[in-house]
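haha ok so turns out i had the wrong file open the whole time. this is the CORRECT one, sorry everyone. sequence first:
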Amino acid sequence: MRSRRRGFHRARTLLALLAICAGALVGETAPPAGVSAADWSAIRAEYERHRHSAVAEAGGYKMRNPGQQWMTHFDRRGFTVRPGVGDGAGWTWGLELESWGFAGQMVRASEAQPRADGNRIRYRRGDGVQEWFVNDVRGLEQGFTLLRRPAGEGLLAFDLAVRGGLEPRLSGDSVGFIDGSGAQVVRYSGLKAWDAAGKVLPTRFELAGRRVRMTVDERGAVYPVTVDPLVQMAYLKASNTGSGDGFGYSVAVSIDTVVVGAHLEDSIANTVNGDQANNSATDSGAAYVFTRDRDGAWFQVAYLKASNSASFKNFGYSVAISGDTIVVGAPNESGSGAAYVFIRFGGEWSLKARLRVRAQRRDVGQQAYLKASNAAAGDLFGVSVAASEATRRWSGRKARTATQPGSTAMGPTTRHSQRSGVCVRAQRRD
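then structure:
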């Protein structure tokens, strides 16, 4: 599959759509033209938060972690981690809170429905006890917050039952989980605790069979007290794992809206705001839309996919935006390429247009995509795109469009015109 990707990149020829288009390739971390370093950093942080977000499923939620390459499923008792996409073969592992408190007065944890907020999951496990998770580039962070001190004396303890077939093994200040071959697969580490005044409290892991115990010396603590371990893969990974999505390969800006292409993204989702957690369509591609609020904060408002997502389409290879119109190119769609037009109405983005080359009218009543009337294999239709939306609202203001990776153009505007236009470039592949 990767050889096909390499072949596509070798074959592409990057041409400017308009004479005024120019620019260097946009790196995945370097800010693109028209976007400040601070804004680009905020946009990337919002992108990471969304790609790690919870998705509802039967009985709870699931969260994909691209860097750790696993899926975590949350139910009423705890969580289960599986490697790869969805319910992939191999090991499974997880934990569930059984009880907490002091020796002789441990409190049994109650079942609770998980609640999701972006890349965070929260449970209410009983009177004054919250369990929470944060899924991000570090791994899966788990935490417990005790609002009040439970009755008893000694060391505060949390007992967790181990799920799955991996065997726990204590190693210094961490617990490793071992598969049948003796290899450590998961590491449960980074245990720390602090009180309401910020005082760091001594902690340690203990094992009792297939149960993990975390203890905290909370003498003199001011409640609430927070206990916070971290779950990660046991082997070292590159710090930029998951960057193969190509986020930032193409970028376009219009006033306070930015659209970012990720032509190597792998989800099978369709159209707008679909399920990002199913990574079963290699290099299908995606685009992300961000807007800035009055306080200057950036928020992801739309996750765009082709209406017919499939592997190797490279949707997001080129992007353009003007006002309320976005065009996304997919030059490898069906071997000849395609482009997709999204319209914003009432603050919501949707795939609304079906246009043909040389068509004079636009059917905005059905979901579809642009396709050349004489499409042929190797055309790379959609290798660059441009959009122009000129309305009274945008009168006298210029919108930036990106027609190919790294290039920007000033979108033409015509005062008082209500018309909009789209231009798509095809480049024959040798």
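The helical segments are 2-11, 37-51.
again sry for the mixup
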